[in-house]
User: Which sequence fits this backbone?
């Protein structure tokens, strides 16, 4: 039997017996374990490129509860390329403004996307079950168009035998066990990763001595659609910090910092939770509106990662590879960047267009991304939860300064919010021969820009691109991999600002994950071809 570990919000891939369960083990190019956001995004990306992907999940849909709720512009840009973002943005609560309070007074507010000219907002709040549902909807559409993607629900991996060149999985189902084989096995099975345990791999890092209560509250309230964060909030029994955020369907996420030495069962008593929520709402609204507790949980901050994300033909992504505190929205957003980085590399390797060693660059680039996220997450946690009187005195002095002086506000850390990873200096990236803007140098992700027929990122697709602005480019072929040319006039002000700066024209080579490989003032076929070869690991 397959154990039910949690209730599901949506049944997205109900169990159905397949012929393979009664046959000898069948080999699959890619098997993804875990049907959460990262596993689904990876399968969708691979399938759209024509590479078969099989997803195994021990449940049949998205787990109940909001879990990840804050999805960044970079994640939405990736989802847009995959054909899944519009439903997310339509359903999600769009926000750009955040406010930071100390006790009962506002210190400052911030706007995450003050400039126009982007398809997607800086952030949306959307419960994770919806995010997963919209990815599955996109997978269903892709399957109807012939994409080789399969999801098997209620298929629980119980054993793993690695043979070097491939892996054998034993899978439990409602109809009994069976086995299959995988050329590449991708572990997207969460922070408690059973696959990681089966391989005896460590998950090292830091567990912070603090507990946080999450309460998803259903209510109609007139609070603005903003992120409100309190240091030492004025309402009773709220702990050292609190957070208020709106989600779709009139659901509000409330977080309370409880401290370390708590009785978890006592703290999850609905009456005790309601007392805390009542105090917050009456403090902010002057009364307690009617509400219902939809979902509650207690979590502990943890910042951990595997030493290596790749172990031969087994590759780890998302929370199975790295874990950060939720403040800053770096968990799911970072995991989606894992999938975005891995998909095109795995596709080229399986098609014989790149060497297997290209997958090593997934590990080095995303290990760098994880270190960056863990650093920011750890700093935020240390600022939010000072562990000594000296640290608390310093933290409160910063808050007092920030209340009066703008220079101190960047030092206030209520969770540095997720930003795209910069791979500058890594081996797949090349020349920066254009005296262009800092934000589009090699290693950076491409910023969006409005065009006459939509937005720039719509034109980049899922392959390599030669982007020529104010000049002409050509398709370039290197080792069987083609980069498609797009030539645009330099008359679009936002495009010019973000990609040319003071230059009159420029040429960019862009990876399938929309990171800039190299840039030049003019198109030269041999130069671009060399950069393309480097980008696919052929140099």
Assistant:
């Amino acid at each position: 039997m397959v154990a039910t570990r949690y209730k599901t919000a949506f049944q997205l891939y109900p169990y159905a017996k397949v012929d393979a369960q009664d046959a000898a083990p069948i080999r699959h190019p890619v098997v993804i374990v875990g049907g959460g956001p990262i596993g689904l995004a990876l399968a969708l990306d691979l399938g759209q490129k024509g590479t078969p992907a099989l997803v195994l999940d021990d449940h049949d849909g998205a787990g109940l509860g909001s879990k990840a709720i804050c999805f960044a512009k970079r994640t939405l840009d990736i989802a847009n390329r995959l054909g899944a973002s519009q439903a997310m943005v339509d359903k999600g609560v769009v926000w750009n403004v955040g406010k930071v309070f100390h006790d009962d007074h506002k210190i400052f507010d911030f706007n995450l996307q003050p400039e126009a000219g982007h398809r997607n907002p800086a952030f949306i709040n959307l419960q994770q079950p919806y995010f997963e549902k919209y990815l599955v909807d996109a997978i269903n559409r892709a399957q109807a168009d012939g994409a080789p993607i399969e999801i098997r629900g209620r298929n629980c991996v119980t054993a793993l035998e690695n043979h070097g060149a491939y892996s054998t999985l034993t899978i439990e189902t409602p109809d009994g066990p069976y086995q299959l084989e995988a050329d590449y096995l991708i572990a997207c099975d969460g922070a408690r990763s059973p696959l990681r345990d089966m391989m005896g791999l460590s998950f090292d890092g830091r567990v912070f001595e603090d507990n946080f209560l999450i309460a998803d509250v259903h209510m109609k309230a007139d609070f603005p659609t903003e992120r409100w964060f309190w240091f030492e909030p004025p309402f009773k029994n709220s702990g050292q910090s609190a957070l208020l955020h709106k989600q779709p369907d009139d659901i509000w996420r409330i977080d309370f910092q409880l401290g370390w030495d708590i009785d978890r069962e006592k703290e999850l008593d609905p009456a005790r939770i309601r007392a805390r929520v009542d105090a917050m709402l009456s403090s902010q609204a002057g009364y307690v509106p009617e509400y219902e507790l939809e979902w509650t949980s207690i979590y502990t901050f943890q910042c951990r990662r595997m030493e290596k994300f790749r172990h031969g033909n087994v590759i780890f992504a998302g929370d199975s590879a790295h874990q950060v505190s939720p403040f800053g929205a770096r968990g799911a957003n970072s995991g989606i960047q894992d999938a975005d980085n891995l998909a095109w590399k795995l596709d080229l390797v399986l098609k014989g267009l790149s060497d297997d060693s290209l997958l090593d660059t997934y590990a080095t680039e995303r290990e760098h991304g994880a270190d960056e996220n863990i650093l920011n997450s750890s700093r935020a946690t240390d600022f939010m939860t000072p562990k000594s009187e000296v640290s608390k005195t310093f933290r409160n002095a910063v808050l007092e300064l920030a209340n009066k002086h703008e220079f101190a506000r960047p030092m206030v850390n209520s969770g540095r919010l997720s930003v795209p990873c910069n791979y500058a200096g890594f081996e797949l990236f090349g020349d920066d021969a254009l005296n262009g803007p800092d934000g589009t140098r090699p290693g950076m992700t491409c910023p969006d820009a409005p065009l006459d027929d939509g937005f720039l990122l719509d034109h980049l697709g899922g392959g390599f691109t030669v982007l020529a602005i104010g000049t002409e480019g050509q398709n370039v072929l290197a080792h069987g991999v083609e980069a498609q040319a797009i030539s645009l006039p330099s008359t679009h002000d936002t495009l010019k600002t973000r990609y040319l700066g003071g230059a009159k024209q420029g040429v960019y080579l862009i990876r399938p994950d929309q990171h800039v490989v190299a840039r030049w003032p003019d198109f030269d076929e041999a130069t671009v071809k060399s950069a393309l070869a480097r980008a696919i690991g052929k140099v």
